[in-house]
Inverse folding.
């Protein structure tokens, strides 16, 4: 049922979608960004990095630096978990099909 | 076509190629509201860090110093509770307004909408209107195209950079930040976050745009759960509009068997998320009302009644009454009210004083030659008030407990916003200890203001009593 075939010519926006790669990138880096942010807030409102690092090599690091590295460490962690989720999402059938080909 | 698009969408969203949406500029009452909103929100965003209050930045979430200044109040990490409650209040408020008015937030107040709007203005300013933009993008590469694209991205980047600077200015004093930029002495972390936030602004408002709403916004995903038949939504009046079709201005609709929709597709062209509202309410619709404005203009030109597309509720569009008060709104409203008043009361009665007693971890206890048992703690007093206070510390819980420290126990002066930290020693005769681990209670009182009182429990450890 095609009611208005001319629309697409008028608005390329009609076929707007997002490329599979962009979607993958978003689903790996975006949710992990949010949770990493949350983890950073929780972690550093409980622990003062200055106290945590007092006895280490990084005793002279600024708090801002510690927050930043903390955030990115969390992000790496959460992003890898998102990446694993994406990886395991591939249906078994696809895997089977591949091994049959060998 | 749009049906066909939906089909592709459902079968395999992964194989669609993204195409840029060129949304048409819209004039009308809702566009006016949105522009007003954009101007107010942006002024608040860019202006707030420059506000001063009694010699300091009025709103400064000072992360390096771990204190949040909000006008006269100073918050510490120990006040995290308020922050958590505030987040819950914000979430509930969003639920409440969504139930009432649908995605009002998305269309007028969401930073994604607000900044995209500004970026669109700059884009139109440099590249011209929608048709010109499409032409430009399709044209072969030449000097004019290069200059236009270059200036657009240049302006976007400058604007984003200022946005990033302002953002960091909420977290470190903005005047200092500005000075450091002028002197080229900005620290690496500040630089990093300014660049990071600028890049996020540029990417989100310049490139991703509606894709943020479609694929990244958690709110967009669950907002429909809050909808009911009385929620304000944007809808096309199918009964009135269909059958759609082109016609001359003065043709007789009855005779032609047409509805009011002239099928000019302007509503689709105006839509920033590229959907056709005439297909019904869709998850992609951010309720920006651009389609209402543009359609009303068309209706005006055709001498038809406005409101073919309008803000309405499901009940209203079926000719029923819409209800403002209903179970959902009453419950959300009540919880919101309770939380807000709770927050207000607890802020009002907040004791701006914190004490921490941390046991010395190296030795559990020490037995002194004269039969006394000694425990060492670190005492921390944090004066969160705006003036200095003198405090008095007492301890109770074990008979004949003696307390000793460097400062005078009843004259501890702590300046406003400062922490003092020092070892404190408790001693008691081993005969007085009935158990291995005994509760002791420290009590700290401000001498000039007894309302400022905090107590803290700690453990006093000794040997296993051999009686
Ligand atoms: S703008 Fe109004 S008249 Fe034009 S296509 Fe959309 S609904 Fe129909
Ligand atoms: S359908 Fe209308 S209200 Fe919804 S996003 Fe598109 S233009 Fe805005």
């Amino acid at each position: 049922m095609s009611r208005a075939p001319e629309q697409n010519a008028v608005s390329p926006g009609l076929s707007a979608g997002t490329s599979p790669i962009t979607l993958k990138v978003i689903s790996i880096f975006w949710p992990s960004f949010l949770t990493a942010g949350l983890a950073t807030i929780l972690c550093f409102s409980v622990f003062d990095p200055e106290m945590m690092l007092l006895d280490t090599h990084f005793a002279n690091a600024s708090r801002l630096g510690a927050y930043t590295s903390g955030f990115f460490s969390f992000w790496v962690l959460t992003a890898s978990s998102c990446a694993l989720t994406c990886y395991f999402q591939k249906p078994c059938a696809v895997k089977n099909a591949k091994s049959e080909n060998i | 076509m749009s049906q066909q698009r939906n089909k592709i969408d459902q079968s395999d969203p992964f194989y669609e190629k993204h195409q840029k949406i060129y949304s048409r500029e819209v004039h009308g009452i809702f566009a006016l509201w949105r522009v007003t909103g954009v101007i107010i929100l942006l002024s608040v965003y860019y202006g707030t860090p420059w506000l001063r209050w009694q010699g300091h930045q009025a709103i400064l979430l000072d992360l390096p110093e771990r204190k949040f200044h909000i006008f006269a109040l100073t918050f510490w990490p120990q006040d995290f509770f308020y922050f958590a409650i505030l987040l819950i209040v914000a979430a509930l408020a969003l639920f409440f307004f969504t139930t009432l008015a649908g995605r009002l937030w998305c269309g007028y107040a969401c930073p994604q909408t607000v900044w995209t709007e500004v970026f669109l203005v700059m884009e139109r300013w440099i590249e011209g209107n929608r048709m010109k933009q499409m032409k430009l993008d399709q044209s072969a590469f030449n000097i004019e195209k290069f200059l236009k694209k270059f200036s657009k991205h240049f302006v976007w980047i400058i604007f984003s950079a200022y946005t990033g600077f302002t953002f960091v200015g909420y977290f470190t004093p903005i005047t200092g930040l500005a000075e450091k930029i002028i002197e080229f002495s900005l620290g690496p972390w500040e630089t990093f976050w300014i660049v990071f936030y600028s890049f996020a602004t540029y990417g989100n408002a310049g490139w991703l745009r509606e894709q943020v709403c479609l694929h990244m916004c958690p709110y967009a995903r669950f907002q429909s759960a809050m909808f009911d038949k009385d929620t304000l939504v944007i809808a096309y009046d199918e009964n009135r509009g269909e059958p759609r079709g082109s016609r001359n201005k003065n043709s007789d609709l009855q005779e032609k068997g047409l509805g009011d929709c002239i099928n000019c597709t302007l509503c689709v062209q105006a839509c920033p998320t590229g959907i056709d509202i005439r297909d019904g309410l869709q998850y992609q619709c951010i309720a920006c009302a651009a389609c209402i404005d543009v359609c009303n203009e068309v209706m005006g030109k055709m001498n038809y009644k406005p409101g073919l597309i309008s803000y309405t509720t499901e009940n209203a569009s079926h000719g029923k009454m819409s209800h403002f008060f209903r179970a959902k709104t009453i419950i959300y409203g009540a919880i919101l009210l309770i939380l807000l008043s709770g927050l207000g009361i607890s802020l009002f009665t907040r004791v701006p004083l914190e004490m921490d007693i941390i046991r010395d971890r190296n030795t559990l206890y020490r037995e002194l030659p004269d039969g006394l048992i000694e425990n060492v703690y670190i005492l921390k007093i944090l004066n969160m008030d705006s003036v200095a206070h003198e405090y008095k510390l007492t301890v109770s819980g074990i008979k004949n407990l003696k307390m000793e420290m460097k400062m005078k126990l009843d004259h501890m002066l702590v300046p406003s916003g400062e922490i003092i930290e020092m070892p404190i020693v408790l001693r008691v005769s081993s005969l007085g200890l009935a158990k291995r681990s005994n509760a002791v209670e420290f009590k700290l009182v401000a001498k000039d203001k007894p309302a400022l009182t905090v107590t803290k429990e700690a453990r006093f450890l000794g040997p296993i009593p051999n009686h």
